[in-house]
Inverse folding.
């Protein structure tokens, strides 16, 4: 009788612990998905900012029509590829980043433009959006790291293998994430 | 990210429980001495504690923000601050954007408040906004978001309520005891002789020692939490030097916030009481660890992970700060420190002026001043909230502007 009670108690405790770990794993996996979505949000935000930037800058930079058109084109291409395979998207976003940094570098040569409040505000927004892309990528990688560690650590690895939580799948996504948002440095003039 | 730094949670919880037992002890002794029953005292202590808890839970953050004279801002009021907070919100994986406040005070300081991450607020002084570079501001905001993410605010609230209740009970008990005489128990005539005397002596000692013990414990929790928030900031920003150099500015500058008081002091990033809050040694009654120690640890970090902070802390203090669970989750992966943001350190005079204007402009706006630019010379003009007229002469060039 006593043995039966002890056994039942142990089983119940084990079930509770197991459910707790399972929920933890699900939570960690969902967190990686949410983190992935955050990157998308920030990339879209960058697309939205660009028409405004081009509109503001146009009047001041008569002689830089080529640079401006390159930015607009890169932006339109990146936007049209929003649902394309990740590799294509990454390439388009990378080109947009390069075109943007070129434009902002050229802008340094126009003192009147740099005094424009609108432009200053946009510059802050763009710089911050770049940071946010970087930070959402960083958070995504942190999440994947935590999730992978959970699937490999004892005792959560037992539940993970039973419940079909695979670290490997996400490692691939992690590599994609790194290609997704290329590092854009807001270069100083003459430093392309 | 690794939100539950669990071992620390346990350690802090143990301290809280000890404080709770202290409170109950005091209640029981007061009950025994003045009312003739342990239980009455216990119940009284619990009721006082519950009321204080309820008030703090639902009003704590707004009381603190009101006491600090803080003004809430939106994305357009101060874009730089708003963006930096949003960046740190993303980096930490916080689900809801905290409310942001600016305190109009030339001193440099910041604090976070709110009962949980869904109801969190963060306040920064205008002095800090004016004097910190973007990387430094990011470090400070990362530290505050760390407090929110690690759920320090609720813990400190719990601790400060217990402390408050203990101090209050002890204070009233000693006053009543001194002036009314410890006669309540004796005049009830139930005897007990030597037991009653022992209880009274123990009670007196308790009244004197309990508030001191509670304070020491409270400050111990507070200091630990500061180190942990520093570790979080380094992880979120991937740039420990940002916070280190911000703390250096705090150490050399003025952190004395006019609106701060004893109750709100531990929430600030640096002690808001002392000018040049450098502080030395491990003072038992310090709410904050010495800034010099915090800076040294941040600068000794080889990477930006919790493991790196743990190592740096260990070599400085010879003890552990981050729990094993959090370290295991962090794994052995190397977390590299990012390079500093370009050109931030060498702001020219015009940029510095712009930065101060940005902040003061936000404050004017928050006080309901209308602002517009003169049609002729472009000077920024501000109209007080009660302004009724429709014409304003520009003090700069004399042009009369239509409003």
């Amino acid at each position: 009788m006593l043995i039966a009670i002890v056994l039942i108690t142990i089983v119940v405790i084990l079930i509770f612990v197991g459910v707790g770990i399972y929920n933890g794993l699900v939570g960690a996996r969902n967190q990686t998905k949410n983190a992935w979505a955050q990157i998308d949000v920030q990339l879209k935000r960058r697309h939205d900012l660009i028409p405004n930037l081009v509109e503001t800058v146009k009047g001041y930079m008569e002689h830089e029509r080529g640079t401006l058109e390159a930015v607009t084109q890169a932006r339109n291409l990146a936007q049209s590829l929003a649902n394309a395979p990740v590799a294509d998207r990454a390439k388009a976003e990378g080109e947009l980043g390069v075109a943007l940094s070129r434009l902002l570098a050229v802008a340094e040569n126009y003192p009147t433009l740099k005094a424009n409040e609108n432009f200053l505000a946009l510059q802050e927004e763009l710089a911050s959006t770049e940071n946010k892309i970087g930070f959402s990528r960083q958070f995504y990688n942190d999440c994947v790291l935590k999730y992978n560690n959970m699937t490999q650590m004892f005792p959560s690895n037992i539940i993970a293998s039973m419940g079909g939580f695979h670290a490997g799948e996400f490692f691939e996504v992690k590599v994609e994430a790194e290609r997704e948002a290329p590092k854009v440095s807001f270069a100083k003039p003459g430093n392309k | 990210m690794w939100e539950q730094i669990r071992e620390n949670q346990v350690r802090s919880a143990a301290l809280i429980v000890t404080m709770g037992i202290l409170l109950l002890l005091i209640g029981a002794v007061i009950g025994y001495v003045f009312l003739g029953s342990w239980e009455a005292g216990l119940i009284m202590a619990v009721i006082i504690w519950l009321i204080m808890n309820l008030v703090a839970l639902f009003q704590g953050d707004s009381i603190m923000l009101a006491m600090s004279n803080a003004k809430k801002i939106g994305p357009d009021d101060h874009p730089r601050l708003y963006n930096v907070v949003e960046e740190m919100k993303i980096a930490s994986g916080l689900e809801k954007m905290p409310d942001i406040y600016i305190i109009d005070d030339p001193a440099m300081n910041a604090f976070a408040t709110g009962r949980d991450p869904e109801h969190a607020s963060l306040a920064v002084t205008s002095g800090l906004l004016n004097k910190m570079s973007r990387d430094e501001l990011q470090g400070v905001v990362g530290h505050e978001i760390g407090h929110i993410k690690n759920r320090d605010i609720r813990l400190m609230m719990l601790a400060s309520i217990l402390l408050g209740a203990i101090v209050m009970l002890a204070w009233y008990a000693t006053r009543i005891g001194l002036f009314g005489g410890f006669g309540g128990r004796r005049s009830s005539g139930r005897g007990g002789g030597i037991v009653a005397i022992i209880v009274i002596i123990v009670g007196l000692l308790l009244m004197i020692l309990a508030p001191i013990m509670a304070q020491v414990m409270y400050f111990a929790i507070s200091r630990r939490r500061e180190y942990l928030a520093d570790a979080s900031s380094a992880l979120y920003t991937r740039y420990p030097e940002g916070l280190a150099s911000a703390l250096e500015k705090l150490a050399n500058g003025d952190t004395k916030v006019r609106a701060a008081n004893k109750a709100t002091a531990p929430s600030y990033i640096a002690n808001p009481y002392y000018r040049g809050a450098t502080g030395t040694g491990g003072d038992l009654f310090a709410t904050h660890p010495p800034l010099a120690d915090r800076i040294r640890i941040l600068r000794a970090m080889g990477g930006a992970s919790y493991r790196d902070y743990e190592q740096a802390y260990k070599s400085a203090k010879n003890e552990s700060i981050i729990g094993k669970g959090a370290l295991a989750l962090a794994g052995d992966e190397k977390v590299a420190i990012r390079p500093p943001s370009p050109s931030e350190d060498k702001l020219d005079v015009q940029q510095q002026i712009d930065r101060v204007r940005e902040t003061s402009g936000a404050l004017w706006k928050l006080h309901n001043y209308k602002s517009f630019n003169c049609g002729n010379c472009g000077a920024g003009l501000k109209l007080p909230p009660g302004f009724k007229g429709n014409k304003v002469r520009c003090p700069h060039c004399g042009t009369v502007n239509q409003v």
Observations:
- Chain B is about 60% helix and 10% strand.
